[in-house]
Amino acid sequence: MRIYQLSIVICLNGFSVSTRIPELSPGTAMASQPHQEPDPLDVLQNMVNDVLVHTGKALRASRKDAQGSTQSTQSTLKSKLPESIDGFREALHKLEWDIIDAKSVLMRDIKRLQEQKQQQSQQSQQSQPTLISQPPQPQPVESQSRSPMVIDLESSPPPPPQDQHMT
């Protein structure tokens, strides 16, 4: 894991930038070779630092300028910043390709694992004795204890109850 600490302090006397570079473990220091390409994250950090340093120098120069003209600082920034911006974009592009490569490797590995899992499940199904599943036997129908109710459709309904009068 890389830990970067970047602090910017602007005060009346000037501009200062401090950076903390990650410590290398003994294994990575020995493994690094002089012709090896730098890590894109390190390049990004260096480009940001470069922009901050040039901006700080331009601010300091503008404060020292008694007339307050900003033409010299603007020309300094215009000459230095495009190089840093291009380097930053290149590092981002390399980082993007690294991410795409890593994603393709992960997708390939996931596909292989899924195929292995599918083969194992097929083998386990084949190793189990296959039982021919027969449909369940139908349950016997219980006989009815009562006879069905018979309704006479032609009969008239019973007369409504009559009220008794009180006399």
The assigned structural class equals mainly alpha
Order of helices and strands: EEHHH
Rg from C-alpha positions?
Answer: 43 Å
Major sheet attributes: 2 strands, antiparallel
Strand content: 5-15%
Question: Spans with pLDDT under 50 lasting ≥5 residues?
Answer: 1-32
**Cα shape:** elongated
Mean pLDDT: 71
Q: For the largest sheet, list the strands in their spatial order.
A: 1-2
Alpha carbon gap, first and last residue: 108 Å
Biased composition (Pro residues): 156-167
Biased composition (Low complexity): 69-79, 116-148
Region (Disordered): 59-84, 114-167
Describe this structure in words.
The protein has 167 residues and is mainly α. It has a domain at 41-120. Helices cover 53% and strands 8% of the residues. The chain has 3 helices and 2 strands. Helix 2 (40-64) packs antiparallel against helix 3. It is elongated and about 125 Å long. It starts with a strand and ends in a 40-residue tail after the last helix. The model is unreliable at 1-32 (pLDDT under 50).
